[in-house]
Amino acid sequence: MNNLISVENLKFSYDAGGAFIIDGVSFKINHGETVSIMGPNGAGKSTLLLALVGILKDYSGSIEISGRKLKDFDEKTLYKTVNLVFQNPENQLFCDTVEEEILFALKNLGVSKDGAVEKLNFYAASLGLEKFMKLEPQHLSFGQKKRLALASVMVIEPEVLMLDEPSSNLDYSSKLKLIETLAGFKKAKIIVTQDIHFALAVSERLIYMENGSLIYDGGFDADNLKRKCGSIYKEISDFKGLAAARGL
């Protein structure tokens, strides 16, 4: 299978000559694959997303999408190919209404009015935003703002959807809605999360980082995970045991 994303020996530092925030990271992701990235604070997870989406450019190593170097993409093509939902929705909401926020990218990409309205209705319904369409985003709760930020990116339907802590500050029902929505989105997804239960629900593969380095890359049941990330392995095992005991 041809790789959608190929990252080779990626290194990045915010200061010239300073410590690497990303230090020699390499991995590949296939079309339609969902990967969760976990690790302690300061591991380089969010910085990695910023590099993968083209926001951070002064890195060494290689990032390729479908065999093409990330740095060779023009801005519009890159926008349609990889896109990121930030951890804090305030960083990407700026339109006057919820409806305008979801439609904004589609208008800029030249999507027809009928096509844009169809996508608007689908993703608003998928994320429970229908009744808020005429509201100003600033009047939404934080969790609702997170769902709006997600809708405004998902509506583009990029080949790679990246999400930074998408389940944080969501109530239980909103989290279930998010899991369902992501399951129906068949493009590749890269998800940074601290929530192991959420990671288990949405992804089949785990990348674990520490101090800018990739410590583990594989499935959630592998022996290698137990050896390299014992605490994560125990949390997964405990959760699966509890779920089995409850017949879930």
Task: Describe this protein's structure.
This protein is α/β, with parallel strands linked by helices and 248 residues long. It has a domain at 3-87 and 160-245: P-loop containing nucleotide triphosphate hydrolases (Rossmann fold). It contains 9 helices and 10 strands. It has helices at 45-52, 75-81, 98-108, 113-126, 142-154, 172-184, 196-202, 223-228, 230-245, and strands spanning 3-12, 22-30, 34-38, 60-65, 68-69, 82-85, 160-164, 188-192, 205-210, 213-218. It has a 6-stranded mixed sheet, with helices on both faces. A 4-stranded antiparallel sheet has the order 2-1-4-5, with helices on one face. β4 and β5 form a beta hairpin. α3 (98-108) packs across α4 (113-126) and α3 (98-108) packs parallel to α5 (142-154). It is globular, with a radius of gyration of 18 Å. The two termini are 34 Å apart.
Strand order of the largest sheet: 6-7-8-3-9-10
- Distance between the ends: 34 Å
Count of helix runs: 9
Unreliable residue runs = none
The assigned structural class equals alpha/beta
Biggest sheet statistics: 6 strands, mixed
List how many beta strands DSSP finds.
Answer: 10
Averaged pLDDT:
90
In percent, how much strand structure appears in the residues?
A: 15-25%
> Could you say what the CATH architecture of the domain at 3-87 and 160-245 is?
3-Layer(aba) Sandwich
Return the CATH class of the domain at 3-87 and 160-245: Alpha Beta
Q: Specify the overall morphology.
A: globular
Order of helices and strands: EEEHEEHEHHHEHEHEEHH
Fraction of residues in H or I helices = 25-40%
The CATH topology of the domain at 3-87 and 160-245 comes to Rossmann fold
Radius of gyration: 18 Å
CATH homologous superfamily identity of the domain at 3-87 and 160-245: P-loop containing nucleotide triphosphate hydrolases
